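Checklist before submission:
- one chain only
- standard amino acids only
- sequence pasted in full

Submission:
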Amino acid sequence: MAKDTLIQINQINQLNSIRKKYNELLKYGNEHPQTVQQNLEQLRKRILLDGLPPESEQEIEERKNGVNKCSLRGLVWKVLLGIKDVSADKYIELVKKGASKQYQKIRKDIGRTFMKDSQFSQIVSQDQLSRCLNAFAHDCPELGYVQGMNVICGAFLYVLPEIDAYYCFSTFTTQSCHLYLDAKITGVHTATNLLDLILEFVDPELYEYLKTRNYHPYLFTQPILSLGTATPPLDEVLHLWDFYFAFGIHLNVICTISQLLMMRDVLLQHQSPCSLFRSLPEIDSKTILNISIHIIRQLPDYLYDLLVVHPVDQIDLSSIIGSTPLTTNTL
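Returned file contents:
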C-alpha cells in the first residue's frame, strides 16, 4: 500500500475517533441533563484539545440538499449556546410578517454575503438569509438589522438547518454580543480600543512601528465586526467560532491580534504596513489559536476581565488609554 494512502487512512481514522468522542459526550449530556455544567466543561476541553472535525461528505451533501438535520458541529454549537428547543411555529409566524423596515438594507447586503465562496452559495440561498434576517428584525426591533449581521447569520445557515440557524443566531446576537450589533456598534469600537491596548502590551516593538505609519485601531473594525468572516476560507473561520462559542466571543479580539503577529516580519519591513490590513492573509485557525492561547496567558487579569465583558457591557477605558504602558505588575 502506498505511503500517501496509509497517511490518508490514518487521518480518516483519527477524525472518526474524534467524531466518536464528541458523539459520546453529546449522548451522555442528553442522558444526564442534571450534570450540565460538567458536560459543558468536558465539551470545552475536547474542543481545546482536538478541535471539531470538518464536516463529513455526507453532512455537506445533506446541507446542500436541504436535509433538516444538524451536523456534529451544529449539535455542538447548539449545546454551547444553550439552545434546547426551537419553535418552528414561532419562526413561521415571524416569516409570515414579510419584509421588515430594514428590508432594503438586508436585500443589499445579502447579495454580498460570502459572494466569493462557491460552496456557501451551494448550501445557503439568499431567500434563507433574507427570511432569517427579516424575521430577526421583527422579533428583536431594538436591534433590528445592522450591516454585519448578514455574514454572522450566513455562517449559522452554512452549518445548521434554517430554523436551528435562526435560533442560534438570535440567541447569540442578543445574549453574547449585542453591543457589537447595536446601531452604533458600540462593542466593536470598544473592541478595537482593547485590541490597541493588548497589541501594545504583547508586542511593543510592532506597536510602536505601526504608530509611526498611520496606524489606528479602527482599521480593524471590519474584522472584529464580522467575527473573522471577512477573511477566507470560511471552513477555517468555523474552527475559530468553535473556540469562541466554547470560551467566549471576546476571544475574537485576541485572534485578530494573532493574525497581526503572524504578519509581524512583513509588517516591520513594509513602508506602508497599514495598507496590508485591508485584506488580511487567509485564516490558519490552528496557528491563530496557538498564538491566541499564548497571548491569553500573558495578559494581566484586569485587562482580560475587561475583554471578557466588552461584547455585552459598556466599559470605560479612558483611565487606561494613553496612560503608562500596562504591565503584569501594575495590574
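Reviewer check: The radius of gyration is 21 Å.
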